[in-house]
Amino acid sequence: MAAPQIPIDVDPATGVWTTDALPMIYVPRHYFVNLQTAMAEALGEQAYHKRMYEEGRKAAFEWCAGVSKASGMRGLDVFHHYMRRLSQRGWGLFHPEHVDVVEGRARIRLENSIMALHLVQTGRRQCVMYAGWGPGALAWAAQDMGAPLTLSGEETQCASQGHAHCVFEVRRA
Description:
4-stranded antiparallel β-sheet; alpha+beta; 3-stranded antiparallel β-sheet; Muramoyl-pentapeptide Carboxypeptidase, domain 2; globular; 5 helices
């Protein structure tokens, strides 16, 4: 088994973990997935999906801004670093297959999504919580490159529906 590929710094005075100068937490996957499932049941799937999209988009944008400030990385380098870090932090393996900031489009393949692995063969798209991450990160990159865009995204296929992997499409809103 390979060792984690991300740096984790722990402040001995506070116990706060950071990676790329951003605070992190480490929780069991089953806890996180069960919590998300309970939230979807409590809110209703449509409200849950909308909320997860909005918060995911916002979080991705903020993550990119924070990492750029801490590291000096810019534009699409930050977008690709974000995808790499999502993979390294255990969410699944994110593969940007097509990214065009001028057109405001991206296609992201996700293999081994924690949601799809835990909620196998439900027949529903289970990875919708990730749908805002691509638009948020790509919108940050576009803004950083001087071409602000309003983007949207959706999961167009999910491994929990029997597909080999999940796919997310990002496009102009």
